[in-house]
Amino acid sequence: MPVIKIEMFPGRTLEQKRAIAKAVTDSFVAAANATPQSVHILFSEIAQDDWAVAGQLCSDRAAAAQSDKT
């Protein structure tokens, strides 16, 4: 039973999550010769305050990018 974990920022709609789940399942089934029923997908939404890239919180990176646009 493959378990695929997808960690992302909050904000995706249920329709988007459904589309992601279908696309990931279809890809895994094709690549791994698995059955769709065996593929489990877990979505975890992580706040930008709880995620860092290159030593900087993503919330700070987003704020900096926004201020660069103005």
Task: Provide structural commentary.
This protein has a single domain (3-69), classed as Macrophage Migration Inhibitory Factor (2-Layer Sandwich), CATH 3.30.429.10. It is 44% helix and 23% strand. The protein has two helices and four strands, in the order E-H-E-E-E-H. The chain has a two-stranded parallel ribbon. It has a two-stranded antiparallel sheet with strand order 3-4. A hairpin with a 2-residue loop joins strand 3 and strand 4 (56-57).
Structure keywords:
70 residues, alpha+beta, Macrophage Migration Inhibitory Factor, two-stranded parallel sheet, two-stranded antiparallel sheet, 2 helices, 4 strands, 23% strand
Number of domains: 1
* N→C terminal distance: 48 Å
| CATH top level assignment | Alpha Beta
**Beta-strand level of the residues, as a percent range?**
15-25%
Largest sheet: 2 strands, parallel
- Spatially, the strands of the biggest sheet line up as 1-2
Low-confidence stretches: none
CATH topology category name: Macrophage Migration Inhibitory Factor
**Structural class category:** alpha+beta
Q: Cα-atom Rg, whole angstroms?
A: 16 Å
Described by the principal axes of the CA atoms, the overall outline is elongated
CATH homologous superfamily designation: Macrophage Migration Inhibitory Factor
Task: Summarize model confidence as the mean pLDDT.
Answer: 96
CATH level-two architecture: 2-Layer Sandwich
The H/E string reads EHEEEH
The percentage helix is 40-55%
Number of strands: 4
Instruction: Enumerate how many helices there are, as a single number.
Output: 2
